[in-house]
Amino acid sequence: MDTIFAVSSGRPPAAIAVVRISGSAAIDAVRRLGGSVPAPRRAALRTLRSAAGDPLDRALVLVFPGPATATGEDLAELHLHGGRAVIAAVEAELGSLPGLRPALAGEFTRRALEHGRLDLAEAQGLADLLAAETEAERKSAFAASEGEISREVAGWLAQIAHFSALVEASLDYSDEDDVAAHSTDAIRDDVARLAADIATVLARPTVERLREGVTVVLAGPPNAGKSSLFNALLARDAAIVTAQAGTTRDVLEASVQRGGAAFVLIDTAGIRGDTDDDIERIGIARAGDAMARADILLWLGDPDDAPDAAMFIHSRSDASGRQPAPAGALATSITDPSSIEALWNHLQRGAAAIMPPVTSALLHQQQRERVVHAHAALIRATTEADLLLVAEHLRAARTDLSSLLGVDATEAMLDALFARFCVGK
To answer: 332 or 271, which is more confident?
Structure first.
């Protein structure tokens, strides 16, 4: 297997650039560039030189003999000055050494998986951690990368293995007194309890749902103050605002983070009955589509016209001649920051009800599908009278759950996962 190398720190130029080298030739590469190899896991200053003896950089060098390393192989790090020319010179020298080549995207982590330093669920969590944009995403991804999902799945697999052993024993040695004590009904009850535990995990939102955020749609008749409120919630001028009714002709979307969670705010065209304007008609239809997919709908029109479950907003509450806010409405004004803050508090409480605060790792949609299949197999096992069929359903559940840890991972699935990583990870 080739020895690979890549910059694993940020994009240059930077103060420091860390070049990682992994593989059987990693330590020899350090010797060739630095003249001597420092003690394992001890940083040492070395002048890196080309094969011709020309100095490349003065760098901190570390070596980590395998297999107790991040990749399970011999590993080295060169802490260089982070200029582009320095990095290019060192990479060119490494590439000239026999058996060394630049790493592919995610190849360091893939080698860690292949050498048993982490499993597929932990690798997925690490990919999410690198892509996390909100505090909620970070918490979930960190928990997954630290093995929370893996431990949970391993616990399920251990229970299923125990149930399978009891079923097989009942089939093969049912005439033995100690085996007969485990009745078929008792096994079914134990399987049902495990299925109930798994159902609580399936009730959580997925990582994708967390990343998409809570969709908040502002709707109402023309000139109701939707775009002004949209801009106030975003604290920037994202929508054009004029005194002319019908200025907004299409849906406008903008993302914002509040309290560690992601929100997608959608401003819509004013809704009214008949119109001869084809463009306005399309805008109204799109407003209806946005309202239908809203997690939280803010209605800025007549309360009697408000859709079911909408939050009624009494906008422009400080306008001259404006009536007081009716009961149950939230008064807002773009000139009153406290009213916008109060609205955000309402939105955050609503978001917490839709997606509870993250306290554990969440499944990806693809992972969730495998758990759904396993859960269905367990449910079928609780309804079968034939122990042979019970054993088959338990085997199917075990296979689905094992795939989460990479036991039966296909090359295509691994390629898709590690393509999400940067080159140096």
So the answer is: 332
How far, in Å, CA of 393 to CA of 24, rounded? 44
Backbone angles phi, psi at 359, to 5 degrees: -120, -5
CA angle (232, 234, 239) in 5-degree steps: 75
**Residue 7 burial (CB < 10 Å; 0-12/13-18/19+)?**
buried
d(CA 20, CA 90): 11
Q: What is the pLDDT of residue 372?
A: 97
- Three-state secondary-structure class, residue 176: coil
Could you give the CA distance from residue 181 to residue 344 in angstroms, rounded to a whole number?
59
Q: What is the pLDDT of residue 31?
A: 96
Q: Which CATH class is domain 217-354?
A: alpha beta
Residue 180 has pLDDT above 50, yes or no: no
Sign of CA dihedral 414, 419, 423, 425: negative
Report CA dihedral (336, 337, 338, 343) to the nearest 10 degrees: 100
Q: What is the pTM of this model?
A: 0.75
d(CA 211, CA 128) in angstroms, rounded, equals 10
- pLDDT: which is higher, 317 or 25: 25
CATH superfamily of 3-114: Probable tRNA modification gtpase trme; domain 1 (3.30.1360.120)
Which residues of 309-425 form beta strands (DSSP E)?
311-314, 330-331
CA distance 302 to 271: 12
Which of the pair, 194 or 288, is modelled with greater confidence? 194
DSSP labels, 80-119: EEE-HHHHHHHHHHHHTSTTEEEPPTTHHHHHHHHTTSS-
| Domain residue ranges of the chain, discontinuous segments joined by + | 3-114, 123-206+363-405, 217-354
Helices (H) and strands (E) in the chain, counts: 15, 12
Residue 406's SS3 state is coil
At 371-399, the pLDDT tens digits run 999 999 999 999 988 889 999 999 999 99
Q: How confident is the model at residue 409 (pLDDT cuts 50, 70, 90)?
A: very low
pLDDT of residue 251: 84
- 55 has a pLDDT exceeding 80: yes
Q: What type of residue sits at position 155?
A: G
CATH 3.40.190.10 correct for 123-206+363-405: no
